[in-house]
Write a structure and sequence with these properties.
This protein is of the alpha+beta class. The chain has three domains: 52 residues; 93 residues; 224 residues, MetI-like (MetI-like fold). The chain contains 13 helices and nine strands. A hairpin with an 8-residue loop joins strand 4 and strand 5. The chain is elongated, with a radius of gyration of 33 Å.
Length: 385
């Protein structure tokens, strides 16, 4: 009995943790799935129904005009106009119809509706209709409103439009050009610095470590203007353009360096000392120890920071606008998407396709390196030195 109680005490908290993580994952997954499904839907379906109806069909409200009075034929005492409400349309299944825009589902499909003035209208599910009147028709053809059930339909035209006519394709390349070097450069520099701060003795090491920790909390907005001014002065001296990829690479590297050094230093300082000392006894230099021992063993920490740095540079807008500019050839993906929000605020099919193009690369990077994320962060948080 006590063993069962002990098992329950141990298993219940673990079950709660697992269920909580699963719920959080589902909550985060649902919006992403909604963006993905919406990005493949047509504009009419998006406005008519939610994305969760995409696989079961949707009911759209549309308008149609019946045949002209000149097409009427006399059947006994009545005049009759017949045809299909889908003539020239895309078709579907009529669920309901009405003659007023305020009540488009007033009558059920197949029902003979008395609409007054001696007029009777029947619209069947296949779209065929019979419109009769006890007197000759006058004026234009009558307008009716329909609730049409359409089968599931998906299209890649949204992505084709975004990647070609909207300029997102060039912005996608620009974001990759910014994010990849801006992730690699600080990792390389920070790895060298972390090794030196962990295993090399020199004056002022403790002061440098304290300075690195202090720089982590410096707001980006506070350092942006001084850094831009310094970059422009150096650029003018060496003749470097004020808006270039080199500038934004250096800016992102500078902003990411303190956190990179802090994480890597804590991880590297926690590696077994015996390995380092054995390598030195065998005559290995610091550079050989760093390349052949430290870097392979520090891959979890390197991957952890790579995720953070890549996500930060990929989703950045402020630094890109300041150091790269807002020209069409320099605009990054977040800037192009922001411009679409202003010019196509009502075209959700374009916006969702653009949004998913924006998040697909970070998702791939995260899932490719996520197994190293927790291991690297935990090692960096408990190892000091």
């Amino acid at each position: 009995m006590s063993a069962v109680a002990s098992l329950r005490r141990v298993g219940l908290p673990r079950l709660i943790v697992h269920v909580s993580v699963l719920v959080i994952c589902i909550i985060w997954l649902i919006p992403t799935l909604g963006i993905l499904v919406t990005s493949f839907r047509e504009a009419g379906q998006i406005t008519a129904s939610g994305w969760w109806t995409a696989f079961t069909g949707a009911a759209e409200t549309s308008a149609a005009r019946l045949g002209e009075p000149s097409t009427a034929r006399q059947e006994g005492a009545n005049y009759v106009i017949s045809g299909s409400v889908f003539e020239g349309g895309k078709g579907g299944t009529v669920r309901a119809f009405g003659t007023r825009v305020a009540a488009p589902t007033e009558f059920t499909a197949g029902q003979a509706a008395d609409i007054g003035n001696g007029e009777t209208l029947t619209v069947n599910e296949d779209g065929s209709y019979t419109y009769s009147k006890n007197a000759p028709f006058e004026g234009r053809g009558k307008r009716v409103y329909l609730s049409v059930a359409t089968p599931p339909s998906f299209t890649t035209e949204n992505y084709r439009t975004v990647l070609t006519s909207q300029g997102i394709g060039q912005s996608f390349v620009n974001s990759l050009t910014v994010a990849v070097p801006a992730t690699i450069i600080p990792i390389l520099i920070a790895a060298f610095a972390a090794y030196a701060l962990s295993w090399m003795e020199f004056p002022g090491r403790a002061l440098i470590i304290a300075l690195v920790v202090g720089l982590i909390v410096v707001p980006l907005q506070m350092s942006l203007i001084p850094l831009l001014k310094m970059y422009n002065e150096i650029g003018n001296f060496f003749g470097v353009p004020s808006r270039s990829y080199a500038g934004i690479w250096l800016a992102h590297s500078a902003f990411g360096m303190p956190l990179a050094i802090y994480l890597l230093r804590n991880y590297i300082s926690g590696l077994p000392r015996e390995i380092i000392e054995s390598a030195r006894v065998d005559g290995a230099s610091d550079f050989e120890i760093f390349v052949k021992i430290i870097l392979p063993l520090s891959f979890p920490a390197l991957a952890s920071f790579s995720i953070f740095q890549f996500l930060w540079t990929w989703n950045d807008l402020l630094v890109a606008m300041v150091f790269l500019g807002t020209g069409k050839d320099q605009l990054v993906l977040t800037g192009a998407l922001n411009a679409l929000l202003g010019s196509m605020g009502g075209k959700w099919e374009i916006l969702t396709a653009s949004a998913f193009i924006t998040i697909v690369v970070p998702i791939i990077v995260f899932f490719a390196l996520q197994r190293y994320l927790v291991r690297g962060l935990l090692a960096g948080s408990v190892k000091g030195g």
